[in-house]
C-alpha cells in the first residue's frame, strides 16, 4: 500500500480509502465490520464517513454509519486510523439532508452541532479530516472558515476539506482563509472516474497550484465500471437498480450513472482491462490513483467479495499503453455521465 500526503498537511494516508456510505442501509452491521477489518489488515489506514450517511438519505437510519464506524474504531488503536467525516451542506439547494430536520447549513450553529454529534457517534475526541459535504455559494465563506478554524484550535479537528465543490468555490474558500488567517481546505472530495473525468478540466489545475489533494469518490462509477449494469442488467439489491425504480433525485442520479453512453464507455473499458489481464474494477481504481493531484481514492463495497479486486490495485501502476487506450475511449465518448 502506497501512502501520500493530504494537501500541505502533516497527515499521510494510504492511497486507497474505504468509504462507508452504505453501511447501515444496504450493508448490515456484521458485514460492515468484517469489511472494515479486512481493509485494515490489508494496510488501509484511511476511512471516510459523514453525518448524513447511510444512503439513500432517510431519517429512519441517518447517523447509523457513524455509529458502526465508531463501534469498529474502538477495536483499533485510534492513532493508527485517519478518520474523515462530513457536515451536511445547506438543505435548501439540490439536496435535502435528513439531519437537523432538513435545516442544515454551513453556519456556526450547524457546524458546531454537527461536530459534536459526529464525535459522540464515532466515540472519539477528534476527527482527522472534517469536510463540508456540499457547498452553498450564496453563504459567506468567511463564517464557515472561521468556525472550522476554531474546531482545529480546540483540538476537535486536525485538518479540513470540502466535497462536491467547484473551482470557484475552492478558490473562494482559499481566498477567505488567506484573508482571515484561518485554516484552509487541504482536500476536495469530488466524483472522478473513467466515466466522469470533468475534474481534469479545471479543478485539477487548482489542486496542483494551490496544494489541495483530490480524494475522489465513485472511482468505479457506483459499480457501473464493474459491468454489472451492462446489457440492460439491473442486479437485485444494487444501488442504481433501486434508484432507477425511485423518483426525484435518486432516479436522476441513477440515469446519470446508468445510461446508453456510460454503458457503451464501460464496455470499451472492460475490453481494455481484459486485454491487459485485469479485473475492470482493479483497472478503474488503479487509474484513479494514477494522477498527480490525487492523494487517496475512496472506494465502497457492499459485499465481502468486492474487496479483492480493489486491493489488487494497491501497488498497481497501469502501463502507458493501457492509459493511452483509456484516453482514446474518453475522446471518442466524452463525458458519458453528462
Automatic annotation (TrEMBL):
In terms of Gene3D superfamilies, this protein maps to:
NADP-dependent oxidoreductase domain (3.20.20.100)
**Keywords from the named record:** Oxidoreductase
Q: Which residues form the NADP-dependent oxidoreductase domain?
A: 16-330
Q: Does the keyword Nucleotidyltransferase apply?
A: no
Source domain of life: Bacteria
Which PANTHER family is this protein grouped with?
A: NAD(P)-LINKED OXIDOREDUCTASE SUPERFAMILY PROTEIN (PTHR43364:SF4), NADH-SPECIFIC METHYLGLYOXAL REDUCTASE-RELATED (PTHR43364)
Full protein name: Aldo/keto reductase
Per the UniProt record, the source organism is Novosphingobium jiangmenense
Amino acid at each position: 500500500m502506497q501512502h501520500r500526503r493530504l494537501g500541505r498537511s502533516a497527515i499521510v494516508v494510504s492511497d486507497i480509502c474505504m468509504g462507508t456510505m452504505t453501511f447501515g442501509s444496504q450493508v448490515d452491521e456484521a458485514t460492515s465490520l468484517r469489511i472494515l477489518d479486512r481493509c485494515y489488515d490489508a494496510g488501509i489506514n484511511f476511512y471516510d464517513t459523514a453525518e448524513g450517511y447511510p444512503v439513500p438519505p432517510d431519517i429512519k437510519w441517518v447517523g447509523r454509519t457513524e455509529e458502526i464506524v465508531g463501534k469498529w474504531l474502538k477495536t483499533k488503536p485510534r492513532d493508527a486510523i485517519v478518520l474523515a467525516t462530513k457536515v451536511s451542506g445547506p438543505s435548501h439547494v439540490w439536496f435535502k439532508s435528513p439531519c437537523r430536520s432538513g435545516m442544515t447549513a454551513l453556519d456556526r450553529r450547524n457546524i458546531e452541532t454537527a461536530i459534536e454529534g459526529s464525535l459522540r457517534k464515532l466515540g472519539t475526541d477528534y476527527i482527522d479530516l472534517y469536510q463540508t459535504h456540499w457547498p452553498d455559494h450564496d453563504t459567506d465563506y468567511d463564517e464557515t472558515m472561521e468556525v472550522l478554524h476554531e474546531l482545529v484550535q480546540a483540538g476537535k479537528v486536525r485538518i479540513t476539506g470540502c466535497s462536491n465543490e467547484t473551482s470557484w468555490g475552492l478558490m473562494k474558500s482559499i481566498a477567505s482563509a488567506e484573508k482571515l488567517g484561518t485554516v484552509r481546505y487541504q482536500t476536495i472530495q469530488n466524483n472522478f472516474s473513467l466515466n466522469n473525468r470533468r475534474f481534469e478540466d479545471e479543478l485539477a489545475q487548482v489542486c496542483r497550484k494551490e496544494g489541495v489533494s483530490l480524494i475522489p469518490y465513485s472511482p468505479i462509477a457506483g459499480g457501473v465500471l464493474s459491468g454489472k449494469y451492462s446489457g440492460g442488467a439491473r442486479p437485485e439489491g444494487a444501488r442504481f437498480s433501486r434508484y432507477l425504480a425511485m423518483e426525484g433525485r435518486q432516479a436522476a442520479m441513477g440515469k446519470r450513472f446508468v445510461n446508453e453512453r456510460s454503458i457503451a464507455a464501460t464496455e470499451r473499458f472492460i475490453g481494455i482491462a481484459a486485454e491487459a489481464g485485469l479485473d475492470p474494477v482493479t483497472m478503474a481504481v488503479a487509474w484513479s490513483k494514477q494522477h498527480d493531484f490525487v492523494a487517496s481514492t475512496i472506494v465502497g463495497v457492499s459485499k465481502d467479495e468486492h474487496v479483492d479486486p480493489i486491493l489488487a490495485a494497491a501497488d498497481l501502476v497501469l502501463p502507458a499503453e493501457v492509459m493511452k487506450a483509456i484516453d482514446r475511449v474518453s475522446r471518442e465518448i466524452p463525458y458519458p455521465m453528462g
